Amino acid sequence: MIDGQATFFDGRTARVHKVSISLAGADLRVVGEHLNSPVAWSVDGLTAAARLRDDEPLRLSHVSMPAARLVVPQSQLAEAIRIAAPQLKPESGGSQFVRYGAWFVGCLAVLLAVGYFTMTYAPQQFAGLVPRSWSLRFGENLEKSLVETAKRCSSSESDRALSAIAAALAEGNPDMPAVRIRVYDMPLVNAFTLTGGLVVLTRGLIDKADRPEEVAGVLAHEIGHAALLHPEAQLIRVTGLQLLLSVVSGGSANSNTAGLAGLAAILRSSRDAEREADAYAIAMLTAARIDPLGFKSFFEKVSADRPAIANQTLSAIGNIFATHPGVAERMNAIQPLPAGVAARPVMSDAQWQALRKICN
Amino acid sequence: MQDDPAMNDSQTATGERLKIEYISKSGLGTLAIVNFLLGVVTLTIYRFWGKTNVRRHIWSCVHINRQPLEYTGTGKELCLGFLVVFAIFILPYVLLALTLNLMLGPEHPAVFALQMLFFIMVYCLWGAALYRARRYQLSRTLWRGIHGTLAGSSLIYSLLYFGGSIARSMSLGWATPVINTSLQERLIGDMRFGDLGFKFRGRAGPLYPTYALCWFLSLIALVAFVAVFSTEIYALVGEDAQKILDNVFKPDSQPTPDELWTIGKAAVVLGLTLLAVFVVIPMLWAIYTANELATFAGYTTAGNARFEMNATALSLITLGIGNLLLVVLTLGIARPFAQQRLIRYLCERIMINGIVDVDRIAQSMARMDKTGEGLADALDVSPI
């Protein structure tokens, strides 16, 4: 049996009790002048109210009296209690390091999994589940904020020309998705696809084209995006990121989703998506017997000059002809029609002339 | 600390004098680094446990009559509190905002209405968040085996806070001393340590001379900065200002290097001016804050003891700038040290004059919250 002095707080009043304690076997007895009755604590039930340190007294509590505190100064008695109640022993620095390290690695793995799910898996898997009416409505809202005040170009003749391209592309491609093609009076050379199969071309792009096959090539690429649901996938990606962000920020960040940055993120396609759309376009053009070299020549023409982009949002989106590494590779992938297959004209000369004047 | 001299030195027949000390100890640096690393890989979700560990450390450094405080809160409680608020408040808003945005477009009035509604709700709940965070912290603070609490209603405090904010802006700030006094009166009046109540009695009147001083000094400073800024910009750019702005910011523009250089200089001047406004004016207000802290401490009593606080503008400025640099220069990693500096400042400057019959303070039977601070975390209002 070991005896000693300690300070005791019974958890009922803030009174300081000067007590004598004795450790006998598996029991710790606390006796004090002003305590109603001696307190008997089992050694098994002792808990450390503060992490044990060599430069501080032991601060103990007990499962039977969670608010009570027994403060034992460093002494032989304190040492004996530490030995008798091994559960009090603080975790060693090494094992703490290992534990935190394991948490770190585990959390990192979960983080990567969450990132993969949000950025890759969910967009691919769930893009097809977005209701058509939603994606159409969203696409139109997006279109409005992107074209700003630009005039929509349309005339009965030029519309017929656009329909002719779509019809020519549909030849031999029975799976072609329904798309709506719209031309806006904007000087920059660009084309993009929004959710719901909405394809937007600029006047600059039409002006830049020298023959119908070039416009057909660009359209085939955009239809590729629509068929592969790239805009819908991007919508899911941004929504997921937004939700993640609201967890991280605890909601204190501005949760306005479709700010311009959000729009840009929705529209910026990855290089893989561009490659997929290219492959789709080449297959489509070949099946429709439209000369794919039109797509190639247009590509070369546009990537040669630095794209002039005036609109802030549109410049954030980038450009389908963006001069990032891999453009040469993308261009080389475009092959002529197989030998023996004769190219069909996309539209009549009259239609082509009407299309060129679409914004006049 | 080996023994308990409180028993011998300061205990009298009717009670004790209370003395607060901050005794720092090692270990905070490790916590700061662990919190940072785990915070990164958990996208900050570790913050509940990190915060808890920091509080546990800082609380245990605060000694009253040589007995340390003990923080008994857990990360789980904070996390649950957050999840509750997230599920009933934030998630519905985010989902609704997202859907409206997608369906109606970002400029639709319904989206704006929803944002306004959310903003007003946040504004209304701000006071409740402060109150509940304070109540949680007090209920998880143990000294000599006794914990504290706030005995009032967070809703009433929230209404008072909301009304006060409106009155504050309507009066161009001049209602501030009155509002702060009544808010503090409620907060302190509701505060308990065990069954010992705190009292706050005093008027806002004595705060007005320093308030007026700070208000007019800020106005003068603001006018002076605007004047200096416009003269400097005019001298730099001259009458071609509009032309240069057009050249630099118009799309497809080809600004000359000279124009870019001028714009660069103007941007630096603007930056320095803003910095001056955001540093100098808060520094002026430290005069008022110091006076308010000292006055409010003097209005506060517990048992037969009256509080006193030796707060000065200069020390507050040093504390504030030091903490700002500490947090900014370490990208937030050293935030626990900034929090330690704040608590140490309070401990070193708060005195409790008179005697409190501590031995007779009994544990409060008030029900304890099961979860903590959800709202405060979401709104980010708790300083520690």
What does the model show?
The complex is a heterodimer of chains A (360) and B (384). Chain A is of the alpha+beta class. Chain A has helices spanning 76-84, 93-126, 132-147, 156-170, 203-208, 212-227, 230-248, 260-267, 271-287, 293-304, 312-317, 327-332, 349-356, and strands at 2-9, 17-24, 27-32, 39-42, 46-48, 58-62, 65-72, 152-153, 180-184, 191-194, 198-202. In chain B, a hairpin with a 1-residue loop joins strand 9 and strand 10 (304-309). Chain B is built from 13 helices and 11 strands. By secondary structure, chain B is α+β, with helices and mostly antiparallel strands. In chain B, 64% of the residues lie in helices and 11% in strands. In chain B, helix 2 runs antiparallel to helix 3 (47-61) and helix 10 (257-299) crosses helix 11. At the A-B interface, strand 7, helix 2, helix 3 and helix 7 of A face helix 2, strand 3, helix 4 and helix 13 of B.
Describe the protein's topology.
The complex is a heterodimer of chains A (360) and B (384).
Chain A: E1 2-9, E2 17-24, E3 27-32, E4 39-42, E5 46-48, E6 58-62, E7 65-72, H1 76-84, H2 93-126, H3 132-147, E8 152-153, H4 156-170, E9 180-184, E10 191-194, E11 198-202, H5 203-208, H6 212-227, H7 230-248, H8 260-267, H9 271-287, H10 293-304, H11 312-317, H12 327-332, H13 349-356
Chain B: H1 6-9, E1 20-22, H2 28-41, H3 47-61, E2 62-64, E3 67-68, E4 70-71, H4 75-104, H5 109-139, E5 141-143, E6 146-150, H6 154-170, H7 176-190, E7 191-193, E8 196-200, H8 208-237, H9 241-249, H10 257-299, E9 300-302, E10 304-309, H11 313-329, H12 335-349, E11 350-355, H13 374-379
